[in-house]
Design a protein that fits this description.
Layout (H helix, E strand, L loop, with lengths): L1 E6 L2 H10 L7 E6 L2 H4 L4 E3 L7 H10 L2 E6 L2 H6 L1 H7 L4 E2 L3 H8 L1 H11 L6 E4 L2 H8 L6 E5 L8 E4 L2 H11 L8 E5 L4 E9 L4 E3 L4 E2 L2 E3 L3 E4 L4 E4 L6 H21 L6 E9 L5 E7 L6 H5 L7 H10 L13 E8 L23 E4 L2 E5 L5 E5 L3 E9 L2 H12 L19
Length: 422
Amino acid sequence: MQIAIVGSGGREHALAWKLAQSERVSRIFCAPGNPGIASEPKCHLVPLSVTDYEGLARFAITQNIGLTVVGPEVPLVGGIADRFQEAGLKVFGPTAEAAQIEGSKAWAKQLMAEAGVPTAKAEVFESKEAAIANLQTRNIPIVVKVDGLAAGKGVTVARSRDEAEEAIEKLFSGSDPETVVIEDFLEGQEASVLAFTDGKTVVPMLPAQDHKPIGEGDTGANTGGMGAYAPAPVATDEVMNKIQSRVLDPTLAALQKRGITYRGVLYAGLMISPSGDPSVVEFNCRFGDPETQAVLPLLESDLLEVMLACTDGRLAEIELKWRSDFAACVAMVSGGYPGSYDRGKIIRGLGAATGALVFHAGTTNQSDSTGKTRLVTDGGRVLGVTGRGSSLQMALDRAYGSVEQIHFDGAYYRKDIGFRAK
C-alpha cells in the first residue's frame, strides 16, 4: 500500500518513521515534508501545501494512495477529511465538524458540559470590556485563552489581574479580534492522553507529559512544546481508568449523540489533581507534537493496521501492544523562540547523534555559493531528539547525550525535561 502524510514537522517525521516499519507499506509520500522525512526508508517528498485540499486529493487519486494521514490541526479544521471522503478516499483524521473540538474551545466546552466531562468552569467573551469586567468576579490565578487555533501558544496563565487584563488587551488589539475564553485555574500535574478512535471505540495510547513553557521549571512563555516523555507516572493505571470512564467514553458518546462520527486521534490535554482525578484542560483533534515523538517509539503494534482499523470502523478488533520502555523527547529550538528568530543556521553533528532518534521539525536544505547542499534551520522548533531506555533516566541520558552532539548557532533546549517524574 502507498501512504501519504500531510505535514512537515517533527510529528509527521515520527509518523513517517513508524509507518515505514509496516510490511504492508511500499511507499510513503509526505506533503510537503522535510529533509529528515526524505531520509527515511520508503519516503518521498511532494511539494504540496497542507491546505491545498484539491491538489492533495488529486495526488491521492492519481498515485493510488491507500491512506492519507493528516498531521496538523489546520487542514483538519479546514475540512480536508471531508474533501477526501467526498472523493471516496481513505483519510485518517476527523471531519471539520468533529475537529471543532480543537478549532473552538467554546464548542468543546459545550460538548463537555453535555457529556458531563470534568473541566474548568469557563465563560466566552466577544468584547474586551466584558472580558475585563469578568476578571473582577474570579479568583487568581486565571487562564485566558484564544477560542480558535493558536499552535499551542494562545494560552496565558495569569498570576495577577493585571497580567490577565494585559492578555485580554493583546487578544482584542488586532484587526481581527479574537473570541476569548476565560476559565478557572486547575491545580495538579498535566498529562497528555492521545487515543485512537473509529467513532465507536476509543483506545488510549500511553500517557505522556509535555513541557510547554520555554523556561526550565515550566516557567516563561508558552511554546508549541519543549519536550515530552512517556509513559508519564502521574497517569497511573487507576488514573487511566478514570480518564477512560470519565473523559474518553463520555466525549465519544456526546459526539455520537450529535451525529458526529469521529475517526482519528482524540487528544485529551488533562490536569490530574493531587487526589488523582482528571479534568480536561483542552482537546486536540490530532496527534500531539512533541508527544508523538515520545509515544510512537514505544508502540509495538503496526501503526498502519491501527489506522486502517480506525478508518474502517473496526478498532474494537485491535489490541495495542507497547514496549515496556520509556521514551523522552528533547526539543532543540532556535534562539529567540517562541518570539522572533533567525532561519538558515547550519546544523552540524547529526551524524554523531547515534544514541537517539532525531526527528526533524524545522529544517530545510540550502545550497551555498559553490552549489553544495547543507542542512539549515527553518523554524522555531528545529529538531526533536528522542531517547529510549528501560528507565526514564536512561531515556533522558540518551536523548541529552545526542543533543550535545548537535550544534547550530543560537540553539537552545531545556535541560530539565521529565523533572516532574523524578
